[in-house]
Design a protein that fits this description.
Oligomer: single chain
Distance between the termini: 12 Å
Number of helices: 13
Radius of gyration: 24 Å
Number of strands: 0
Length: 321
């Protein structure tokens, strides 16, 4: 298993290099300059603009800028935000925990809801429960996130005032999970419901379709023929193999923990990385956009690695390839 993990880790290195070159080239080819807002400022002198270009390395060629960026990134330095005038790594570090909390908890809730419903729907195909589960999944997949979020705000935050409208903490209170968790939990219930519903729909459909395929396999019939109890056949023999496609979806869901919550963060005004990314795009803050995208790329590769390792645990044959 150790060799399998090391081999998979080494395979991620050339992929990460290729992604970094691609991202850097895209930002280099983007129209306009990262300092465009300063060029139009009548109070800026030519000397000040030159110093800014030197500070951000914009006076160098593209390959030189890329080498400098990668060298600094390996030291944990993602550059400085042009508009916010702070290190990009510090900005991402401050915002990532709010997004991670909302997205990771909603992912766990989605799995807890979706996997049992998917299994029961498959084992009771064409039953009332199956039809109800399918309707639930379709609602979760098809309803727009922002629309559902606005509905919840209208019903539960404005009409009956059970939950706050926005933010992750009451204004003036510290954003500390250790000392202020009840307040944070109250603020995060509505965003969690929105993200959990949309995630549960996809996971439920994958689990149901995978289980339907697995429970028709010969080894499942053999297990039943041996006289094993139905619960043992389903949850010990069939579910393990049926989870492989779900693990694939789960692996790809890890990076979307940070990027996919953008709309929810905007509607609920959450201080997360999605809101930071939106701000960076609007302000054409290229160093911040590059830093966030590199962070998401690294997290995507990490998600793939977690999915590969999970495969190996579920099906040991995958370790021998």
């Amino acid at each position: 298993m150790g060799k399998f993990i090391v081999r998979r880790l080494l395979q991620q290195i050339p992929i990460l290099i290729g992604v970094s070159i691609l991202l850097f080239s895209i930002f280099q080819l983007a129209p306009g300059s990262p300092l465009a807002s300063f060029y139009s400022d009548p109070n800026m002198t030519v000397e000040q603009l030159q110093r800014l270009e030197e500070a951000y390395g914009l006076n160098k060629s593209g390959p030189e800028q890329y080498i400098d960026y990668i060298s600094n990134m390996l030291k944990g330095n993602f550059g400085n935000s042009i508009q916010l005038k702070q290190p990009v790594a510090k900005l991402i570090g401050e915002r990532m925990w709010a997004t991670f909390y909302i997205s990771f908890v909603s992912l766990i809730i989605s799995l807890i809801i979706a996997v049992p419903i998917g299994v029961i729907s498959a084992t009771k195909q064409y039953s009332i429960f199956d039809y109800g589960g399918t309707v639930f999944a379709l609602i979760g997949i098809s309803i727009p996130t922002f629309f559902f979020a606005l509905l919840l705000i209208k019903w539960f935050a404005i009409d009956i005032r059970w939950f706050p409208i926005s933010g992750l903490v009451t204004p003036g209170m510290p954003l500390s999970f250790r000392t202020n968790f009840p307040d944070i939990l109250k603020h995060s219930i509505l965003p969690l419901v929105v993200l959990s519903l949309s995630g549960a729909g996809s996971f439920m459909r994958y689990t149901r379709s995978s289980m339907l395929e697995v429970i028709r396999q010969d080894y499942v019939r053999t297990a039943r023929a041996k006289g094993l109890r139905e619960k043992v056949v389903i949850y010990k023999h069939a579910l393990r193999n049926a989870l492989i496609p779900v693990i694939t979806l789960l692996g790809f869901s890890l990076p979307t923990l940070f990027s996919g919550a953008l709309m929810t963060e905007m509607v609920f005004v959450l201080p997360g990385i999605g809101k930071l990314q939106h701000q960076a795009v609007l302000q054409r803050d290229y160093p911040l956009m590059m830093g966030i995208n590199m962070f998401l790329a690294i997290f995507t590769l990490f998600g793939n690695l977690v999915a590969d390792i999970s495969y190996a645990f579920v099906d040991p044959r995958i370790r021998v390839d």
